[in-house]
Specification:
Layout (H helix, E strand, L loop, with lengths): L5 E2 L23 H8 L9 H9 L5 H10 L17 H17 L2 E2 L4 H10 L3 H5 L3 H16 L4 H9 L3 H10 L4 H5 L2 H16 L14 E3 L2 E5 L3 H11 L3 H4 L9 E7 L6 E9 L5 E7 L8 H17 L6
Parallel strand pairs: 1-2
Antiparallel strand pairs: 3-4, 4-5, 5-6, 6-7
């Protein structure tokens, strides 16, 4: 069954080569023939037929030729000066061919997804890893970007928000233990799920539980709340958030009349705020403190989630226990 081509939504601009970028002067179709010639491919490679035959030896077929024909040598600017160099045609050719193979095998059609390729290059620790970049992973990422663009996001914002934070981790996981067919079919949804599970596991406080907590983890208002259940977790939270919660908290009250939580962004595990609850004389829980990084004011979304959490605690009269 033929693989469905992935096209950029109508109206989204193509990648533009910015001034100062490596190879930003490349506007024609001369560099790829030059690299091929320098690496031993004889004949006049300015001929379309000769170029086609030379690239065929590197696994580039008609789709790859169409991509190169449309965008020319400026395709390779996003690969950066580390891989595209005048004094190293062998490395330049490998990188260029690797990019063309990735685009053609992923069946990406339409305008060149330059911003996504930049992130792929950044996530690849070496040229060898870039050459082995999983086609299905690239395809899933581009579908995610295209879907976000259809919903009104710019390609740049979609790549920055949805792809860049997850890709280095997922690439490592994918190469170590490739997903099965059903997982691949889920596309970027599987990537988010996999990343979220691992990120939350890494972010969860470790060590011996020193005091009771109302739960081990919970979600309110679309945010994750992780109880800080030992002194080490308090210290780590304070260091990561640049505030002094470890000095502020009385350990003897923890798990009884006082609780502390790390508020995290789902999926990435990013720390958004530190929340503390205290029990008043009437036996109700009150929001004792809510601080962002460096004690900054948290966002409205974090504040609303914390207030919803406090209401839930009082409604359920949770006093502690895991």
């Amino acid at each position: 069954m033929a693989t469905e081509a992935i096209t950029r939504p109508h109206g989204v601009r193509s990648h533009a080569v910015h001034a100062g970028e490596p190879c930003s002067a490349l506007a024609g179709h001369s560099w790829l023939p030059y690299w091929l010639s320098a690496c031993g491919h004889g004949g006049d490679l300015s001929s379309p037929r000769a170029l086609k035959l030379a690239l065929k030896e590197h696994g580039i077929h008609a789709q790859g030729l169409r991509i190169y024909g449309t965008d020319g040598d400026r395709l390779f600017a996003v690969l950066g000066s580390k891989w595209i160099r005048r004094d190293n045609p062998e490395t330049s050719l490998r990188a260029a061919v690797g990019l063309l193979r990735l685009l053609q095998d992923a069946h990406v059609e339409g305008e060149f997804p330059g911003e996504l390729v930049r992130v792929v290059v950044g996530a690849s620790r070496s040229l060898q890893q870039f050459e082995a970049f999983p086609v299905a992973l690239f395809r899933a990422a581009w579908r995610e970007v295209a879907d976000a663009a259809e919903q009104g996001k710019t390609v740049e914002a979609a790549v920055a928000e949805r792809i860049a934070p997850l890709l280095p981790f997922v690439l490592k996981e994918w190469l170590h233990e490739p997903p099965d067919h059903n997982q691949v079919k889920q596309g970027w949804a599987w990537v988010r799920k996999r990343f979220g599970t691992q990120a939350l596991a890494r972010a969860e406080p470790s060590g011996r539980r020193e005091w009771n907590t109302p739960f081990t983890r919970a979600r309110f208002g679309g945010l994750d709340f992780l109880p800080l259940f030992n002194a080490a977790a308090l210290e780590q939270e304070g260091e990561q958030m640049d505030h002094c919660i470890a000095d502020y908290v009385n350990p003897r009250a923890m798990g009884g009349s006082f609780h502390a939580f790390s508020v995290r962004q789902p999926g990435t595990g990013l720390r958004l705020a530190t929340m503390t609850l205290a029990r008043n004389e009437a036996g109700s829980w009150v929001l004792d403190g809510l601080a962002g990084k460096c004690n900054d004011e948290p966002s409205e979304a974090v504040t609303m989630a914390a207030e919803a959490f406090t209401v839930w605690m009082n409604r359920n009269k949770r006093a502690g226990g895991s």
